[in-house]
Design a protein that fits this description.
Copper Amine Oxidase, Chain A, domain 1; disordered C terminus; outer membrane lipoprotein receptor (LolB), chain A; signal; about 425 residues; 2 domains; five-stranded antiparallel β-sheet; disordered N terminus; single chain; DUF6612; alpha+beta
């Protein structure tokens, strides 16, 4: 159990060293981070039968800075910007760029006397960039393409030099659990966490409370405090759990293994080339202004799950070759990790990472599905893990006080906490 707890913690630490807003029904179109205003006269964007976004021709292209025209005889919409003219014939699966035909997978249409065009091929014909921000239901048009990957890697380089920082973290979770009559009911939870992290020495302090909504009852209470220390050959987690009376009890979990400590001490700076290698896709989603008036760049990154095989390969082999059930389950969990997407915000002025948004559902599903497939588990254990793999969870982390965090010492009563008892292997199988 220690290694499973360690591994889950490790995976989350790796993810955080590399966040998901709620989707809206309205489709938003933004040109160079400026929202296009639609109304009843202009029409509004929609998804057509080919699953492509159709947008009002005039309102969108004028915001894009093009001069527009309409040939009523040929039913062709015309947009000109600079030395490029794009013609968009209605009901035809092609457009013309300066007379050159470009095939498209959907066609412009007329609805209620308003012309709608498939926006992606038209924008790309002008040499501009277009992205779909699924989380915000936004078509993001950037007139001059931006090197989002460079912005991302530069921000990673900056963060690798941090000596310390604080993080305000909010996790929203929904998990199916058995009800009183055998039916499945949903339990909603919100966990608020405050984290302080130092790199030299490697140590983390975390406090948390949770609000639970179950069967019409709303319960809020402190849940857990935690300290983590990492050195050359030891990874120690000090966990303080609160009881119903608000009293905290501390236990300590120590993993003495140089390989594990090396993994837990994952240094972004030392692994920038590895991170870049496994970064599959980076998308620029425009500029946003935060509550303090700062301009933030919103970027989505897709990281290949293969990075874990390279980072954790020796560890996975070590676990897979063990005779211990817990080790084997942990190796299966790590092997099942796949690609994941997350959104981060970068301060335009400083280039610093300031916020993560992440959907953890797919990560939890992969991790717990891998464990649930273990032949060593009982039917009861598999049922419990099945509920965990169906858990929906999103995390938002705001990073503050970069290199200005208040230092902390771990209290003596925490350092003197008893070692958490190891779970007997046979009890896991029974």
């Amino acid at each position: 159990m220690k290694k499973i707890i360690f591994t889950i913690t490790l995976v989350l630490l790796l993810v955080m060293s590399s966040v998901v807003a709620f989707a809206q029904e309205e489709i938003i179109v933004a040109v160079d981070s400026n929202k296009v205003e639609f109304n009843s006269e202009s029409g509004a964007p929609f998804i057509d039968q080919n699953n492509r976004t159709q947008v009002p021709f005039r309102a969108t292209l004028e915001k894009f800075g093009a001069t527009i025209d309409w040939n009523n005889d040929t039913r062709v919409a015309i947009a000109t910007k600079g030395d490029i003219t794009v013609e968009v014939p209605v009901d035809q699966n092609y457009i013309l760029k300066n007379g050159e035909k470009i095939d498209t997978d959907t066609a412009a249409i007329i609805v209620n006397s308003k012309t709608y065009l498939p926006i992606r091929p038209v924008v790309e014909a002008f040499g501009s960039e277009i992205q779909w921000d699924e989380a915000l239901n936004t078509v993001v048009i950037t007139s001059t393409p931006i090197d989002a990957k460079k912005i991302l890697m530069d921000s990673y380089t900056k963060s690798s030099e941090w000596k310390n920082y604080d993080g305000n973290i909010v996790m929203d979770m929904t998990m199916p659990i058995p009800g009183e009559n055998g039916e499945t009911v949903s339990m909603a939870m919100k966990m608020n966490m405050y984290m302080t992290a130092f790199t030299k020495p490697n140590k983390i302090k975390l406090t948390s409370d949770m609000t639970m909504d179950f069967a019409g009852q709303n319960i809020k209470q402190p849940v857990m405090d935690m300290y983590i220390t990492i050195d050359a050959d030891k990874f120690v987690t000090y966990m303080g759990m609160y009881d119903a009376n608000g009293e905290i009890t501390w236990t300590k979990s120590t993993i003495e293994d140089a390989l594990l400590s090396e993994l837990a001490s994952y240094d972004i700076k030392a692994n920038l080339e590895l991170t870049e290698k496994y970064t599959k896709d980076v998308k620029y989603f425009g500029k946003y202004t935060d509550e303090n008036g700062k301009t933030l760049l919103r970027i989505q990154n897709t990281l290949s799950g293969e990075i874990y095989s390279e980072l954790l390969g020796k560890y996975i082999e070590q676990l897979a070759g063990s005779t211990n059930t817990q080790d084997i389950m942990t190796s299966e969990m790590l092997k099942s990790l796949g690609d994941f997407k997350f959104v981060l915000y970068i301060d335009e002025e400083t280039g610093e990472l300031v916020k993560y948004e992440m959907d953890l559902s797919s990560i939890y599903s992969s991790m717990f599905s891998g464990m649930a497939d273990s032949e060593a588990l009982s039917a009861e254990d598999k049922e419990a893990l099945s509920m965990l793999k169906d858990m929906k969870a999103t995390m938002i982390m705001n990073i503050i006080n970069i290199n200005q965090s208040k230092d902390f010492e771990i209290p003596k009563e925490v350092l003197d906490a008893p070692e958490a008892p190891a779970i007997d292997e046979e009890s896991v199988v029974e």
